Structures are given as structure tokens and as C-alpha cells.
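Ops channel
N.P.: pipeline sanity check, posting one input/output pair.
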């Protein structure tokens, strides 16, 4: 059961979901948040559906034990492979990143084709293809997986020459100017947005669903009288299943407030 005073729980396989947490924390300034980065099991994007579903379940159950009032699955791979299962099992609202990602993309371009960059698991699940269809888009959607971008983001190489080379390499046989939009369908990729922009210039609009997801959750909680609307000091908790050296600079770059940091055993 959700209660007004509970925090909002957010999980990702690692640090990528912090791009979503940032949007949530900006849109809902008086909410408490508990973020769980499953660094010990990263990456999810190369693993099977059964394994990702099991890890997602473990993360979700742990966060529920912290008394969260809503769960954000801030990982595209986990959303693609485990969202229906989590919704079925939990008695709190559970939001994923794929539906708002597609909506954000269609908000800026109805033109086809669209290019989705995501993990191998997300691409092969075809969750994006199905969601574009579900939202009434029947144009062409191309997908590309870019596994090396995940460790580069975890390493904090957001705007680095090697990151740009890797992006160039992944897109080398793609005529980017044909696309109406480029959707960053992995929460790690927005951390590298500056590198994408440097490589691609104005060739294509780049988007992802973080801001829209935050708005959707805020209005949902508002309707249910579960949204903190009074100014109050809030608790931001960052939990990780293993130690991570890159975490503090990333947290400092994204958040100005104090974040309580703890490594947990899951
Ligand atoms: N952040 C994850 C996602 O959005 C991908 C990283 C990983 O492979 O674990 O899919």
C-alpha cells in the first residue's frame, strides 16, 4: 500500500538511472527518493530475460521493504523484460521508461524512420517496436545496440574523445539524416548526450523519456493525493550493490543537495 510519506523507489542496473532520478527529483522537489543501482550485476543488457527478471524482482522487493509509495524501473532492459511481472506482483504503482520514451519521441517527430539506441536485450525483446505500434506509430523503427557505451558512462567518460569515437563507430554505416528522431533507449546513454551532440551536430533531434516519465508520475501521485506539495527537507538515498569509484562525481554533477550513500548486500 502506498502512503504519502513513503519515498519513491528507483532502480537501474547501475548509474544510468540517475538521469531519470534527476528528472524525478526536479519535477517533485519535496519527495524523498531511494535509488538502487545494481552495480554488482551490471550489465543487464547482455543477459537473458529470466536473469534480468530475477534481478529486477530482487531490486523491486528490496525497495518495497523500504516502504516506497511508487516504483520507477529506470532501466530500459528491466522495463522491457520485467515490467509486466513487477506490476503483477506489487501493490504499488510501477512505472517503466519505454512508454514515456516512445511518447517523447513521437512528440518531436511523427516522421519515419526513427532510430532507437538501446541494449542488446532491449533491442531483441522488441519492446520498443511493440510500444511504437501500441501508440499508433506504424512507420519504420530501426534499432541498434551499443554495449560499449554502458561502461563508458559508468566510468564517467561523458564527453570524452574515446566515447565520441565509439559513437561514431556504432553509427558509421547509418545515414543519420534520414531519421526523424534518435531515441536514447538506455538510461546510460543520456549521460553521454554531449558526446552524441558533438558527433551528430544538428543532423537529428535526440530525445529520451525521463522528463515525461517524471511528469506522468507527479500527476498520477497528485491525483491519488500521494504527492508531497509542501516545502520540506527531503531525503535522497543512493544505494548500490557494490562499491563504485565513479559514483560521487556523477552524483555531484547531477545533484546539489546531500545524498546519503550506502553499499548494500542483495
Ligand atoms: N541502464 C540500462 C538500460 O536502460 C542498461 C545498462 C545495462 O546493460 O545494464 O537498459
Amino acid at each position: 500500500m502506498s502512503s504519502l510519506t513513503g519515498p519513491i523507489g528507483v532502480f537501474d542496473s547501475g548509474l544510468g538511472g540517475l538521469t531519470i532520478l534527476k528528472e524525478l527529483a526536479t519535477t517533485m522537489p519535496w519527495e524523498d527518493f531511494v535509488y538502487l543501482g545494481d552495480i554488482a550485476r551490471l550489465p543487464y543488457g547482455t543477459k537473458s530475460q529470466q536473469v534480468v527478471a530475477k534481478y529486477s524482482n530482487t531490486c523491486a522487493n528490496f525497495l518495497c521493504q523500504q516502504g516506497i509509495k511508487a516504483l520507477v524501473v529506470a532501466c530500459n532492459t528491466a522495463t522491457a523484460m520485467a515490467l509486466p511481472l513487477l506490476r503483477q506482483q506489487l501493490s504499488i504503482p510501477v512505472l517503466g521508461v519505454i512508454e514515456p520514451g516512445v511518447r517523447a519521441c513521437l512528440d518531436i517527430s511523427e516522421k519515419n524512420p526513427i532510430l532507437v539506441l538501446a541494449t542488446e536485450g532491449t533491442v531483441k525483446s522488441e519492446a520498443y517496436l511493440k510500444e511504437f505500434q501500441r501508440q499508433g506509430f506504424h512507420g519504420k523503427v530501426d534499432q541498434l545496440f551499443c554495449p560499449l557505451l554502458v561502461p563508458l558512462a559508468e566510468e564517467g567518460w561523458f564527453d570524452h574523445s574515446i566515447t565520441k569515437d565509439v559513437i561514431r563507430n556504432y553509427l558509421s554505416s547509418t545515414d543519420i539524416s534520414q531519421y526523424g528522431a534518435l531515441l536514447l533507449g538506455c538510461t546510460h546513454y543520456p549521460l553521454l548526450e554531449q558526446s552524441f551532440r558533438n558527433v551528430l551536430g544538428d543532423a537529428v533531434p535526440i530525445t529520451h523519456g525521463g522528463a515525461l516519465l517524471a511528469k506522468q508520475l507527479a500527476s498520477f501521485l497528485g491525483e491519488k493525493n500521494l504527492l508531497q506539495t509542501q516545502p520540506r527537507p527531503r531525503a535522497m538515498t543512493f544505494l548500490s550493490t557494490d562499491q563504485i569509484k565513479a559514483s560521487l562525481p556523477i552524483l555531484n554533477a547531477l545533484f546539489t543537495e546531500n545524498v546519503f550513500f550506502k553499499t548494500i548486500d542483495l
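N.P.: looks fine end to end. The chain has a mean pLDDT of 93.
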